[in-house]
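Write out the 3D structure for:
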Amino acid sequence: MPIFHPNDPEYCEYGCPICTRARRGVPWAVAVQKAELALTLGGCPWGRARRRKYGVTPDQPIPVSPTDGSI
């Protein structure tokens, strides 16, 4: 856990044991994440960094960027 890097949105996206499982739909992780979002008003520092970088809350997947139209 990157304790010394609380502004690392990549940890929330790929390494957090709660957020990664909650986004996949694991029931216990969804419940823990909902409680965390409610109690901390936005999630942990890594979840808030993810919101700043990607524009989505820790419980939402990152939107797919539009392609340039080439095949």
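The first helix runs from residue 9 to 15.
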